[in-house]
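Reopening: structure tokens for the adenine complex, inputs below.
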Amino acid sequence: MPPADAASLSPDERQASIASSDPVIPSMSLPPNDDLAAAIRTIPDYPKPGILFRDITTLLGDARAFGRAIDALAEPFAAAGIDKVAGIEARGFIIGGAVAHRLAAGFVPIRKRGKLPHSTVRVAYSLEYGIDEMEMHVDAVRAGERVVLVDDLIATGGTAQGAVTLLRDMGAEIAAAAFVIDLPDLGGADKLRGLGVDVHTLVAFAGH
Ligand SMILES: O=P(O)(O)OC[C@H]1O[C@H](OP(=O)(O)OP(=O)(O)O)[C@H](O)[C@@H]1O
Ligand SMILES: Nc1ncnc2[nH]cnc12
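Re-run output (same inputs, fresh job):
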């Protein structure tokens, strides 16, 4: 764990203190990601027929799997000078908040339209069916800050692409985007890579 006075350290000092601290489960002894895949429940035909819904609530309820997922997502960035983690509502708040804590970084909530109280920047994004809008506070990131974007899952990539647009428009440098689950058949991770984003994922499931 970072020291209690981590907030008073520079980003590099904070990252160094994390890199030298003991993770909950040492990375050298991590089991293969098959264990993480097994901790994720699949619900057929939710929320509509033909969709295999990848339900992370079972992973979240399993302390070991949850801790492993957070450590694995954070580990590549332990010495990367990350200022902020941006998480996408709603499941991205759970994963992103924990990763931010692990990196001793700040957290930026990217929310669906109308939920944030202060002045916002807004972008429309495409979902599998239709479009929606997401927002971020205008002062949530400063120009040049290094941000890791985090969500539970990337499918078509429309949601993550919207978040990348918001963050870049505000001058943030996107160090990477990290997801527990990739649905590679839907092409989202490749779409983000095409935007010049370094994409990290832990578990891939075939199909929708
Ligand atoms: O790559 P995409 O095709 O854009 O899909 C991925 C997004 O879909 C899910 O969120 P959802 O919109 O269902 O919101 P929720 O987290 O509030 O359930 C998931 O948590 C991602 O944010
Ligand atoms: N198959 C899926 N399971 C869970 N969340 C999703 N978001 C988009 N596609 C999804």
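The chain has a mean pLDDT of 88. The pocket of PRP (ligand 1) is lined by residues 88-92, 127-128, 151-160, 188 (CB under 6 Å). Marking as resolved unless the reporter disagrees.
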